[in-house]
Amino acid sequence: MENRGRDSLALTTSVNTLAVAIAAQLNDADLGLMAAILTQLGDTLATIAVQRERYSPAGN
User: Is a pLDDT exceeding 90 seen at residue 43?
Assistant: First the structure.
């Protein structure tokens, strides 16, 4: 993603708004499950990004 001169807080504001909208639709048990799933997704994406950076050919 490129930063195209947007407000530096726009992304965090959008994520917060999405979280509030999702939480409003879920009961406590489902909210906890969703949080765990999204945490795992984020951790997995971070691992993939690190692996790509670490093992990609120089210059790519």
Answer: yes
